[in-house]
Amino acid sequence: DAGVTQSPTHLIKTRGQQVTLRCSPKSGHDTVSWYQQALGQGPQFIFQYYEEEERQRGNFPDRFSGHQFPNYSSELNVNALLLGDSALYLCASSLVAGGLPGELFFGEGSRLTVL
Amino acid sequence: AQRVTQPEKLLSVFKGAPVELKCNYSYSGSPELFWYVQYSRQRLQLLLRHISRESIKGFTADLNKGETSFHLKKPFAQEEDSAMYYCALLNAGGTSYGKLTFGQGTILTVHP
Predict the structure, then answer these.
(1) How is A74-112 classified by DSSP, letter by letter?
(2) Shortest Cα–Cα distance, B76 to chain A (Å)
(3) Cα–Cα distance for residue pair B65/B69, rounded to 1 Å
(4) CA–CA separation, A81 and B52 (whole Å)
(5) Which of B46, B95, B101 is nearest residue A45 as measured by Cβ atoms?
(6) What pLDDT was estimated at residue A2?
(7) Higher pLDDT pick, A96 / B103
(8) What is the mean pLDDT of chain B?
(9) Interchain CB contact of A45 with B (< 8 Å)
(10) A17: helix, coil or strand?
(11) Which of the four, A86, B5, B13, B76, has the lowest number of CB atoms within 10 Å?
């Protein structure tokens, strides 16, 4: 089991562009959460997907959107990139039925740099 | 709004010394708290959950609702404990899933 996988690992964009980040959850997991981690900060919750629907959302603008596919994989899209969007984006998967609440399995992250 | 505060950005101890990583929280409901750890060149992973009342790798954490704290303790630190530690609070909103609010993290360095 490869665990949670994310792609790409690094990418550089310019202000105003759009970016799509991808995540495959741990085998058997049905829920995907996305977090933004700025340098020197703890991860900050963006949103969570379960059964292909956004279930919870943090304090992020509508420029941040996502999607979950039938195979439970997920995408995070960010439009109109700002310099402040530069961060490590973490995907975490979990299991609703039978899983332990709060037990997240994290990927290694996608490092986004906005110039 | 919930908040998690880890007052120490850096903590250094010598091998064999006791260690305590502080965590305070603000939450109006019944809290579920966790400690996550990230070792060098590894991904973030769950260390322990308060509800399990378990000891993992010699670490324990007690929830003190009166002081709204969830400090992580180990009586004898080891060099392999050097890592970044995050305290986290679960907001499930009555669902079977939920978001974690993380503190800013504490870098623990255990010197030989």
Answers:
(1) EEEEE-S--GGG-EEEEEEEE-SSSSPTT--EE---EEE
(2) 26
(3) 7
(4) 41
(5) B101
(6) 75
(7) B103
(8) 91
(9) yes
(10) coil
(11) B76
